[in-house]
Amino acid sequence: SKQAGRNRVTFFSAEMGALAKARDLVEVELKRAIENREFTLHFQPRFCFKTGTVISVEALVRWEHPKRGLIMPAEFISICEETGMIEDLGQLILEMACMKAISLHQEGRDIQISLNISPRQFEDNRLLKSLETFSRHPDFPRGKVELEITENVLIGDHELIAKKLEAISDMGYQIAIDDFGTGYSNLSYISRFPLNCLKIDQSFIAQLPKSGPIISLILTLAEQINATIVAEGVETREHFEWLRNHKCDQAQGYFLSHPVDAEELPHVIETLNSG
Ligand code: C2E
Ligand code: CA
Ligand code: CA
Ligand code: CA
């Protein structure tokens, strides 16, 4: 009936009002959290099939909320992206990740760290300056810090984007395309930009073996452009074996290890390296 319809509308808008309010609260809290540096990095190993060892780890941000405990990025990254707070948070993450790479290098550990750069952070002018500062650190491990960007970062002025990526690459950073195959479908960028790595989105791995043909295609493409290929979301032995048999370079996923904190990381790496 008309009445019920009207009630439904009222119900939904009340709910949306509550949601908007909750979001405002999170926004205020996030601002404070960034000022207080309430964030930490967890690390997920990337296993290399050829060496049988962990040669890289992905840094994944966590919010250490004083009352709520650990909060996952799904709850705050998009809010940070939409409000622009990702620029400050991204700077914080970049600093934590580069300092981690430097300390690993100082400990004599030959491990790459990759970190996620959001589209808005990629446009932030401070990014290049910070990257340059860290690259000049005497213990900066050249070639051992990788930036993961998504395909939507590459939409826009290709000449400008190419210049930026080349500058980043010249400073000694690696560049990976994250969630490959899910974004921008115009593949012409592939040969235009300096790309070191393609990370096949986990949705393709989840659909193995049905998605085999498309994964094979991506593997061939990566080989053509001399890029490392990483499979994300490797959850089962079947996924792992399929990828090994098809000459994928690296695997990342729950089958190997969940993301762990900095304290647990050495043990997890040791276990994977000796297993
Ligand atoms: P992503 O960059 O694609 O990261 C992979 C996500 O998949 C991580 O979730 C990871 O824990 C999860 N994952 C790993 N292995 C498996 C698996 O076998 N199966 C499944 N189903 N999932 C797996 P997380 O840490 O919750 O991060 C979610 C997303 O949040 C990331 O997706 C990334 O887009 C964003 N994010 C995380 N950390 C950062 C950061 O430091 N900066 C920025 N800008 N974004 C970040
Ligand atoms: Ca990523
Ligand atoms: Ca990904
Ligand atoms: Ca993703």
Automatic annotation (TrEMBL):
Coiled coil: none annotated. Transmembrane segments: none annotated. Residues 23-273 form the EAL domain. It comes from the Bacteria. The lineage of its organism: Bacteria, Pseudomonadati, Pseudomonadota, Alphaproteobacteria, Rhodobacterales. This is Bifunctional diguanylate cyclase/phosphodiesterase.
